[in-house]
Design a protein that fits this description.
6-stranded mixed sheet, 12 helices, 8 strands
Length: about 350
Amino acid sequence: MERIEFRISVGRCRRCRRRVQGRHPRQTSDALGSASSQLGPRALALATQLNKGLGLPYGKTATVLQQAFGLQVSRGGLCQALARVASTAEPTYNALVEEVRSSASVTPDETGWRMDGKLWWMWAVSTPQVTVYSIQPGRGFEQAAMVLGADFAGFLVRDGWSIYRQFIHALHQTCLAHLLRRCREMILVAGRGEAEFPRSIETILQQSLQLRDRRQQRQISERGLAVARGRLEVRMDRTLERRCRSPQNRRLANHLLRERDALFTFLSCPGLEATNWRAEQAIRPMVVTRKVWGGNRTSRGAHTQGILVSILQTCRQQLRSASSILQKLICAPQPKPVDLTIPTR
């Protein structure tokens, strides 16, 4: 453990009599007197990574700091300290939200979250460079638009949740992994004669992915790709025109009819993902955290959670040092955004 004493000069301007106080680059607060004893930036950055990044509860985070470094800090003290870190990081978080809204392609997902014992939702919106989390009380279009913006006009790679179709300015790609998983599950439990429909859908979707792989390996020309894509679309349309006696097959057919325009967008747009794997990877650590300590007790805590995990996940995506970014934010005299965007090549 390292203790540093800062001797801070305090004075007044001779002209305007405004109070002026010095600040060392490693200070985390301007507080003096009884509040002058503070956790340093490295300790705060470590606590943020332990609690928000690795999902350790406040009590266990305090235990790690005490046993490993001899730092005495209470759970309440840690909670307040991380709230202050989030306050200084909020401009950076807002910049990440703007980056997501202006991105060419995004992948959203959501999972249940607990806030004071009530069901809220953890939203995750990912791009190749940035991930933004937001904990909100609903799972509707209004909450999704809080992150994406109601007029989002890029590519939206998402699952089949109906509210995503309300982004009418976006170009949609529905997740084929979800559809393939659904088909396989239906085939396993299908009765006599009921497996033909999901098996046909599975075959068409698999062939579309194989066609994508051939394009990436330059084994097919653009004209050949267009012809093959057209044939797949015709086969899908004819399959969906069949009458399904099974209720499960009818539900799948109705879902595919609603998603028809978003099934093969990735074949027309090179580089576009066919699944929402990116958002699912981003949401997975939050699911683990929820299972470990349940969620947040206050809306302020939920807001703190969203800000800090967004910065940690974005640093992980960009192979940046989250500790150095957090220390830079913590030691800033005034909250200001840190550029976590990657310039377009």
